[in-house]
Each structure stands twice: as structure tokens, then as C-alpha cells.
Design brief:
GO terms for molecular function: arginine-tRNA ligase activity; ATP binding. The chain is α/β, with parallel strands linked by helices and 545 residues long. Among the domains are: 78 residues, Gyrase A, domain 2 (2-Layer Sandwich); 132 residues, Orthogonal Bundle (Isoleucyl-tRNA Synthetase, Domain 1), CATH 1.10.730; 84 residues, no CATH class; 59 residues, no CATH class. Helix content is 54%, strand content 8%. The protein contains 20 helices and 13 strands. The strands form four sheets. Strands 1-2-4-3 form a four-stranded antiparallel sheet, covered by helices on one side. A four-stranded parallel sheet has the order 6-5-10-11, with helices on both faces. Helix 18 runs antiparallel to helix 19 and helix 19 packs antiparallel against helix 20. The chain binds arginine (ARG). Arginine binds next to helix 11.
Length: 545
């Protein structure tokens, strides 16, 4: 449902013909919002702005929500929402179990492709972003009543398994006893070996063929590598409190049997052509073709994603597909989507979006690395944060940092700033929530029932807070549509700031009678919205801090 400011905006636009661009008023005496629409129109019409403003004010009927409109200065229109309307709207946040989030009237089946770690390697910080952002989309879309189908596109197939299995056999190891750290060490050894020893390299290549043709010994070692890796990833998911489970696993290998079928379909429909021995799809707007099958007959990452799209549309019946993968793969996904549209795997009524995200940078502005210059592992990052704060606060710090800057932007990992309970941080929001809880706890200790209605809101700080509370549902709907979690972060930050301002200017426990009751109700409404919003970000709302 739309908030009053949004309804107001539409009402003005219906009359003025342009977006009134309502801005929060600069001073309480100007009401809640101000618009310069009359000044803009006056210029185009060559009329005095105040005259244009008067015309708009005379035609506009917003008396349901607003006090009589005022024209100020050169022709600004001031809007003041009626206090009782605001109080009634904000009161709904107290009783509505969904705290103002209205279920969509067009529920969709939404596939979200996220996490996608690679077998026999630890998750790196890029996978952190994918996992945290994907989890947030999952929560937001679910809250709106969509059916979310997470797909964890694990990197569990490819030529690297030839050398991994070969190395295990050569060293006579039992991979079933490995953890992810050991597997990664093995990966490094196998890689070195492959580069230095042509005989080993040759055996590794033959091992790839054995894997692909279903050799049982090879497959069983490959399976062990997957099992141990998934166990490691699940440990990380548990630590991150994300919703992914084994049911969501749909690694590259699940598409093995489909690859030859896809290649044939593409060739038969003329979508793909043989070029220099390789099967390729040329699509307009891309400077290189997509290689479907290499000249040696091998399949790669590209066709696997075509098969995944085909499966997600045909079998999972996706209406919308969201890929949470780093911006380095933007070209890849644009090409995958274009090829799939051309091949008919992706009908016009199915939306496919690449929600690309930027890098996590170190203080030097370069890709975040460990102290010895290695790639930063996700668990190193969690450990670093937990050195500075307790686990729920450390997690809030990391997740919020990940979600609160525009997705596409790179951001600097500054743990000292991120864990602070001041400024635009996750812990600041947790702190605001804990403060609401504290006030309510104290009231409860005095056997005071928290009322279910906000009744008096005369102070500007109360009104600003109430107004902000009413915008929650709309903000969540906006994130579902735009896939911009930073808007929810920004909303919650503004809410926490409005609460801080209210808390500093309006005594709650020291107030009396109806004012006290109403202010306590405002605290409760704020607590509910903060808790709900933090939950959508995957952040724990703490009762005490
Ligand atoms: N495993 C890939 C990586 O680590 C990410 C997979 C993304 N999803 C996909 N459908 N390609 O970069």
C-alpha cells in the first residue's frame, strides 16, 4: 500500500501534470512537505508562480489527509498532514503482523541464484556478498508473498577435477577425511604439479575424460570432494544465519545430461553454428560469440548457464530470475540472457536480471587481501569482525556494510567504522532497537500495559517519526522491484535517526497520562518496524546492547 506522501504526490501530479517532487519541509512551521511545482510550471506557462500555486491549491482536494494547504514565499506549496491521520496510520504498525508490508497481488515464482561457491576451495569475500545479498532478496520477496526458489549454482564440475582426483590418487589420500582447508591445500599442490609436470598434466586430462564418462572410482572421489565442501559451506551459512539449505543446491554438475541436448537444440534451430570447429552463438551487440562446445568437444561455464535458464523456466516455472553474481560477470550474463531469448529458452514474459555487485576493497583501495597478500577468505573476514565485537554485532556490521552501499559500487572494508554503534552502521540500527526495547521493558516493569494506539502526536519529532514509520511497506515493495537493498538500509537508518531525535526531545517514561501512553506506543511501533526491517536484511534485532 502507498504511504500518504506517495498518495499526496500522485494527487498533485494528477492536477499539475508533473511530479511535484515533494521535499521534507526545512522547518516544522512549513508543515511536513514542500513542493516547488508551481515555480517550475510558472516558468513554462509564463505566469506568476503564486498564481499557478493558487490554481493548484484550489483544484486539489487532499483534505482527507492534509490541513488546508499554504502558499509560501515565491510560490512554494506547503503540506501539513493532519496529526490524527498520521497517528492512525502509524498505529497500524502496532497491530498489523506484517507491519505494513502488503502482500503483492501478483505473486511470482522467483528463482534467486546466489552463493555459488566453488568445490575444494574456501568461500572468498565475493561469495560473501552474493550470499548476504541473495539472502536479503530471498527474505524481501518472501515477505511480499512471492515463492522464492533459491538456486545455489555450486562450482562442482570442470576440468580442475581431473587434476584434483589424480593428485589424490597419486598421494594415496583418503579425501573423505578432509576438511575444506585441506582440500584447498590439495588444490594448490595439484595446480603446481599440473604446471610443472607434463606427465601429470596428461594424466589429469585423461582423468577429466574418465570423470565425464562416468568412471566409478573417479566419480566417488569427486563426490567426496563435493560432500566435504558442502559441509564446509553449510558451516559458513550457519555462521552467517542465512536461509540456504541442501535443498537449494543445484550445482553445475546437475546440468551435465542437459548439455548435449542444449547443444543439439541450438544447432538444430540454427541458433548456434560451427565456427572454426567450435559450436558458437553469435548475438548482436556482443563482440565475441558464446562458445557452446569447444572444438575438442568440451563444454564450459557458458552452456551450463544456458541449461540452467532452460531448467528454471521449463521445470521450475520461474516468472523472474535474479542472478546475484559479481559485476565481473556482467558480460557473461548479458550474453546468456541474450542467447536464451534468441533460442526461445527465455520467453518475453520471464524477467531475467543480473544483480551484479562490486568488490570489497582494502584500506589501500585495492581488492581486499589477507596480510600475506592471499585472497581474503570469508571466514578470515568474520574472524576479523569478531575480534572487534560480539558475533551478532560483528555479523550485523558486515552484512549492513554489504547491503547499504549501492550494489554495483565497490566498498572499502573498514571494520573499525563498521562495528561502531554510531553513524550509518548495522550496530547503530541494533542499538536503536535495543533502546526501544529498554524503554518498553522499564514501562512493563511498572506494570504498565503498552497501548495499541498512537493518539497524540503534537511534537515535530513525534510527527517525523510517525511519518517515517508509515513508509515501511512501500520501501520493502520498492526493494523487491528495484533490487536495491541500500534503500531499505537508508530507510531504517532514517528511522533510527528519527527515533533518536524523538528520544532526545520527547520524554517518554517521564511523561504522563495519554502522552506517555502514546509515546510508549510510538516506541513499540518503532521497535516493530526496526525488527522487521533488520530481519529482512538478515540482521538480528537485539533486545539489549
Ligand atoms: N561459481 C561461480 C563463481 O564463483 C558463481 C556462479 C554464479 N552463478 C551462475 N549461474 N553462473 O564465480
Amino acid at each position: 500500500m502507498s504511504s500518504i506522501p506517495t498518495l499526496l504526490s500522485s494527487a498533485v501530479e494528477a492536477i499539475a501534470g508533473v511530479d511535484p517532487e515533494l521535499r521534507p519541509a526545512t522547518k516544522p512551521q512549513f508543515g511536513h512537505f514542500q513542493s516547488n511545482v508551481a515555480l517550475r510550471l510558472a516558468k513554462a506557462e509564463g505566469k506568476p508562480p503564486r498564481e499557478v500555486a493558487a490554481r493548484i491549491v484550489d483544484t486539489l482536494d487532499v483534505s482527507e489527509w492534509c490541513e488546508p494547504l499554504e502558499i509560501a514565499g515565491p510560490g512554494f506549496i506547503n503540506f501539513r498532514i493532519k496529526a490524527d491521520v498520521l497517528a492512525a496510520e502509524a498505529s497500524r504498525q502496532l497491530t498489523d503482523p506484517a507491519v505494513g508490508v502488503v502482500p503483492t497481488d501478483m505473486p511470482q515464482r522467483v528463482v534467486i541464484d546466489y552463493s555459488g561457491a566453488n568445490v575444494a576451495k574456501q568461500m572468498h569475500v565475493g561469495h560473501l556478498r552474493s550470499t548476504v545479498i541473495g539472502d536479503c532478496f530471498n527474505r524481501v520477496l518472501t515477505a511480499l508473498g512471492h515463492t522464492v526458489i533459491p538456486q545455489n549454482h555450486l562450482g562442482d564440475w570442470g576440468t580442475q577435477f581431473g587434476m584434483l582426483v589424480e593428485q589424490i590418487l597419486e598421494e594415496g589420500l583418503d579425501a573423505s577425511t578432509f576438511d575444506l582447508i585441506k582440500a584447498e591445500e590439495l588444490y594448490r599442490r595439484a595446480n603446481e604439479h599440473f604446471k610443472e609436470d607434463p606427465v601429470f598434466a596428461d594424466k589429469a586430462r585423461k582423468r577429466v575424460v574418465a570423470l565425464q564418462s562416468g568412471d566409478e572410482q573417479t566419480l566417488s572421489i569427486w563426490r567426496q570432494l563435493i560432500t566435504l565442501s558442502v559441509a564446509g559451506f553449510n558451516g559458513v551459512y550457519a555462521r552467517l544465519h542465512v536461509k540456504l539449505t541442501d535443498d537449494d543446491l543445484a550445482g553445475e554438475s546437475t546440468y551435465n545430461d542437459d548439455l548435449a541436448v542444449v547443444a543439439r537444440e541450438l544447432e538444430e534451430s540454427g541458433t548456434a553454428v560451427i565456427d572454426d570447429g567450435a559450436l558458437c552463438v553469435f548475438v548482436e551487440g556482443f563482440n565475441s560469440p558464446m562458445i557452446i562446445r569447444k572444438s575438442d568437444g568440451g563444454y564450459g561455464y557458458g552452456i551450463t548457464d544456458l541449461a540452467a535458464v532452460r531448467h528454471r523456466v521449463r521445470d521450475l516455472k520461474a516468472d523472474r530470475m535474479i542472478y546475484v553474481v559479481g559485476t565481473e560477470q556482467t558480460y557473461h550474463f548479458n550474453q546468456v540472457f541474450a542467447v536464451c531469448r534468441k533460442a526461445g529458452y527465455l520467453p518475453d514474459d520471464v524477467v531475467a536480471e543480473h544483480a551484479g555487485y562490486g568488490l570489497i576493497l582494502g584500506a589501500d583501495g585495492k581488492r581486499l587481501r589477507t596480510r600475506d597478500g592471499g585472497t581474503m577468505k570469508l571466514i578470515n573476514l568474520l574472524d576479523a569482525a569478531e575480534e572487534k565485537a560480539s558475533p551478532p554485532i560483528a555479523l550485523a556490521a558486515i552484512k549492513y556494510a554489504d547491503l547499504s552501499s549501492g550494489l554495483q559500487k565497490d566498498y572499502v572494508f573498514d571494520i573499525d567504522r563498521m562495528v561502531k554503534a554510531q553513524g550509518n552502521t548495522g550496530p547503530y540500527l541494533q542499538y536503536a532497537h535495543a533502546r526501544c526495547s529498554q524503554v518498553l521493558r522499564k514501562a512493563e516493569a511498572e506494570q504498565f500495559d503498552v497501548p495499541t494506539k498512537i493518539t497524540v502526536i503534537d511534537e515535530p519529532a513525534e510527527q517525523t517519526l510517525a511519518l517515517q514509520l508509515t513508509k515501511y511497506g512501500e520501501t520493502v515493495a520498492d526493494v523487491a522491484e528495484t533490487l536495491q537493498p541500500h534503500r531499505l538500509c537508508g530507510y531504517l537508518y532514517d528511522l533510527a535517526v528519527a527515533y533518536t531525535d524523538f528520544y532526545e526531545n520527547c520524554p517518554v517514561l517521564k511523561a504522563e497520562g495519554e502522552i506517555r501512553a502514546s509515546r510508549l506506543a510510538l516506541c513499540l511501533a518503532t521497535k516493530r518496524v526496526l525488527a522487521a526491517g533488520l530481519d529482512l536484511l538478515g540482521i538480528e534485532a537485539l533486545e539489549r546492547m
